[in-house]
Description:
Layout: H1 10-25, H2 29-42, H3 47-59, H4 65-81, H5 87-106, H6 111-131, H7 135-169
Amino acid sequence: xxxxxxxxxxxxxxxxxxxxxxxxxxxxxxxxxxxxxxxxxxxxxxxxxxxxxxxxxxxxxxxxxxxxxxxxxxxxxxxxxxxxxxxxxxxxxxxxxxxxxxxxxxxxxxxxxxxxxxxxxxxxxxxxxxxxxxxxxxxxxxxxxxxxxxxxxxxxxxxxxxxxxxxxxxx
Length: 171
C-alpha cells in the first residue's frame, strides 16, 4: 500500500498550522521595527509595510484591546491638536513613552501579559523615537498604527473564533 501524502491526518494538519504560527511568532522584531521606522521616515507605505503591520499586530495579539485603544486614543488626541509649533502637544507626545511604561508596569502582575506589554513598550518606544516631534513623521506613524490596531482587532476576533471552532471539532 502506497503512503498517501496528500491526505494528511487532522493531527498532522494541526501540527503544520502550529509550526507556521511558531514561525510567524519568531519573526525578527528588529526587522519589523526597521521596516516600520523606514515607512515613517519616508512616508512610503507599501503593501510590504502593511504586511509588517500585520506581523507586528500578530506578535502583540495578546495585549488587551483596551490597552491598545488607550494608547491609540492618546495618539488621536495629539493628531487632532497637531504637533506643529505647539509646545504642549510636543510635551504630550514625549510623555506617551511614560504612559506606555506605566501600562506595562500595571500588567506585570500577570507574568505572560507583563512580558508582552514590556516588549510592546520597548518596541513602541523605539518607533516613537523615530517619529520625534515631526508632523509628517507623526502623520505616517498614525497610518501605520491604524493598520496595527485593525489587524490586532482581526487577530482578537480570529483567535476567539478559532478557539470556538476547536472546541466544536473536539466534541
